[in-house]
Amino acid sequence: MSESSSVKSTNVIWQNSRVSRERREDLFNQRGATLWFTGLSGAGKSTVAFLLEHLLTERGFKAYVLDGDNVRHGLNSNLGFSDNDREENIRRVGEVSKLFADAGLIVLSSFISPFQKDRQLVRAIHEKAGLAFMEIFVDTPLSVCEERDPKNLYAKARRGEIRDFTGISSPYDVPENPELSLQTQGEPLESAMLVLDYLYDHDIIRA
Amino acid sequence: MSESSSVKSTNVIWQNSRVSRERREDLFNQRGATLWFTGLSGAGKSTVAFLLEHLLTERGFKAYVLDGDNVRHGLNSNLGFSDNDREENIRRVGEVSKLFADAGLIVLSSFISPFQKDRQLVRAIHEKAGLAFMEIFVDTPLSVCEERDPKNLYAKARRGEIRDFTGISSPYDVPENPELSLQTQGEPLESAMLVLDYLYDHDIIRA
What would the mean pLDDT of B150-159 be, rounded to a whole number? Predict the structure, then answer.
C-alpha cells in the first residue's frame, strides 16, 4: 500500500469555518478555483502561470502560483522522484491547492504531474469539496522542450545523469479530457489570455 | 534521521513569482502573516481562530484558518500521532502557512503543536522567508481543558484508549517567548479582540 492511500488519523472531528464560501466569494468578487497546469519540463507551465498571476493581480483578483520547484524546497523537500514520491508530491500539492481554493483564491498549480491517476486524484479531492478544478494541458512537444532545455535537465537525462526523467526515462500520460489545451508555442501572453478568457466565461472572475 | 530533516530533492531551481510581495500587500491593504495558535486540546485555539477569521473577513481583510483537525483529513491524512508523525505534521502545516502568508493572507494556524522545537522550526521557516510570524499561546490550564473535554478525548486518554495524548501521556512544552498569551477563559470574543488589536498595533492590518 502506498503511503498516500493509508489513513492513520483517528479521533479527528471536522470543524467548519465560520466564514461561508459564499460570503468569501462575495467579498473577493471571484470564486476560489484551482487551475492545474500539467506538461513536460520546459513546456512553459510556470511561465504562463506566473504571467497569469500577474494579469489577475493587476485586475484586482487574488491569485497565487504553487510551483513544483518552489514547493520542493519546502513542503516536499523530503520527497524525491521515485514513482511513490512523485505520487505523494502531487497528492500534497493537490491538498494544498484545495486549501487555497477553499480560502477563495485562484491557485495556479504548475506541476509536471505526469500520471493521469494522480491528476485524477487531485480533481477528485476538489470535486468532493465542491471546488472548481480545471486541468490545463500545456501541450508543447518533447522535441521543443528538449530544444529549449532551460535548466539543462534534458541534456543531463540523456547522459543518464538524472533517473526517472519525464519524457526521457519516465512516462508522461497525455491528459484525456483537459478543460484547456495550450498549443501556442513561444508566446506565453497568448496562452495566459486564453486562460483569462476561460475564467471570465466560466464565471470564476467577473469584469 | 527523521524524515523531515532529510533533503532528497535535487535539480531544483527556485522560481520567483512575478508579483512582488510589496505589490500584493499594497493591493490587499494588509501584510501576509502567520498567527500560530498553540495550546492543549480543548484550550479554545480553533474557537478563537474561527472567530478572528470572521472579524477580519467582515472588515475586508483576507484571512483563513488552518486547523489541525481539518488538515488531518487531507494533507496529513497519512500521518498519525507518534513523535515523528507529530513533527512531520507540524513541519508540513508550517510550510503551508508560509505559502499562505507569502500569498498575502493572514493565516490562523491552530495546532496543539506541543513541542518547542517544532514551533521553533516553523518560526525559522517564516523568518528565513522574511514573513511575519506570531506565536499565540492559548493558555488554558489542563484542568479546565479536561473539564470541558468537548470531543470526549481526555476521558478516552485517561482510560488508556488514546496513546500519546498531550497533557496526559505526552508532554506539552509551554511557549517560552510567545508574542501573545491568551488567558481569558470562557470569553473567546475577548481573546479574538486582543489579537485583532495586536494586528493593528503591529501594522499587519490598517484601519
Answer: 94
